[in-house]
Known about the structure:
By secondary structure, the chain is of the alpha+beta class. The chain has 6 helices and 7 strands; from the N terminus they run H-H-H-E-E-H-E-H-E-E-H-E-E.
Amino acid sequence: NKVLAQQFQTYQTMVQEDVYGLAIEFETLSELGSQLRDLISASPDFALLAVTDKNGRLLTSAANSNYSGNLSKLKGSSIPNVANLLTKQPIGLTITDSKLLSKLGVRFSKTPLFSFPTKSSSDELNGLFLAYYDWERIQSQTENLSTLFQNNGFPNAKTLLVDLNDGQILSHSEQENLD
């Protein structure tokens, strides 16, 4: 997918230098929070940027402007499947259940998650830098594709994106058909 490839490149740029692991080690998380806010402002296709410790406890985060009003609801949250994410080197990309994002008021059930294991100055894993893609972008593309088909001789066309692993509809051109 061209969209995810572009976001992967954006994420690669974000992790060129592992400032996240050093911020965890030297406890400069408030400064890191400010940096995350700058990053997400420049990358609005992400719903949430987050840094966790190696146990998955959320240390600092920044949400895009559509969801930032609910950011305080994430305090004390833990990220599931941390052990699996810590093994993804150098960058992981998975589709994840976005229960954490539901606390922000995000309405989609799954979303792409970019992960980067962070390291201390002694090269030991000490956390994760996570970027949750804003699924609303994919939902919008699904709707636009349906309109394109309808305008080109298929008036009853509907488009959807299906998770082939479990058959779950992830995106549908008619939003009322989503879970």
